[in-house]
Design goal:
Blueprint lengths: L1 E5 L6 H9 L4 E4 H11 L8 H8 L7 H24 L9 E4 L9 H10 L1 E6 L2 H13 L18 H23 L2 E4 L11 H19 L1
Parallel strand pairs: 1-3, 1-4, 2-3, 4-5
Helix pairs in contact: 2-4, 4-5, 6-7
């Protein structure tokens, strides 16, 4: 079984990939791989997620466009590396794999998205409207760098914090639509502290999807 997890930052991708790794899945983590490439390229001295965020900065800051483009180039290279690894495995290799993507995987291009769908079951970890509102409130309280891909547009007379708040809400809505279009299936799960992570929450719907696909191909 091969699973790719997609969704917004904070939706639980890394949490669920760790849960799956404890149940025998080999985890391919994009954040760490991108961080290593940024360190190797001399952009960073240490590739933690927090350090990457501070390096990226915000869309109104000087040099953001260059850093955003460089990050996306590295993300594409990492995804190509992971996919090539899967594509070149022996036909009988059924080792379970989970790919923990970044929130910006939807911007890596059609070719990579198609290869991911061919090699894995793409699962969108969607969240409730209430949780998305909570994400927005958290962003307003503590803005963090993300890939904007032209979604940050200031209005005349608008200051940077106000523009970030308004545009981030639009970014969440746009990404939600893209994730839904991209994924094979959607699992609704709000990553709240009191919610337990039962591995069947993911395994059961993926297994059902694979069984339905085999049945339809055999019909």
């Amino acid at each position: 079984m091969r699973i790719t997890l997609v969704g917004m930052s904070g939706s639980g991708k890394s949490l669920w990939s760790s849960v799956l790794s404890r149940h025998g899945f080999h985890k391919l983590g994009c954040d760490n791989a991108i961080g290593r490439r940024l360190v190797d390229g001399g952009e960073l001295s240490e590739g933690s997620l927090d350090r990457i965020g501070r390096w990226m900065g915000f869309p109104f800051e000087t040099g953001f466009a260059r850093r955003e483009a460089l990050y996306l180039d590295h993300e594409k290279a990492v995804m190509d590396q992971f996919l090539t690894e899967l594509e070149t495995r022996p036909a009988g290799d059924a080792s379970p794999v989970v790919i923990d993507t970044t929130g910006s995987v939807i911007y890596t291009g059609r070719a990579i998205r198609q290869r991911l769908r061919q090699q894995t079951v793409v699962v969108y970890l969607s969240t409730s409207a209430a949780f998305r509102q909570a994400l927005h409130r958290a962003y307003v309280a503590n803005p963090r760098p993300v890939l904007w891909q032209q979604h940050f547009q200031k209005k005349t007379g608008e200051d940077n914090p106000s523009a970030l708040r308004r545009c981030y809400k639009n970014l969440i809505a746009d990404r939600d639509a893209r994730y839904r279009q991209y994924a094979h299936l959607e699992v609704l799960w709000d990553p709240t502290p009191d919610q337990t992570q039962n591995v069947d929450t993911l395994i059961a719907p993926v297994t059902s999807f694979l069984e339905q696909r085999r049945s339809s191909h055999g019909a």
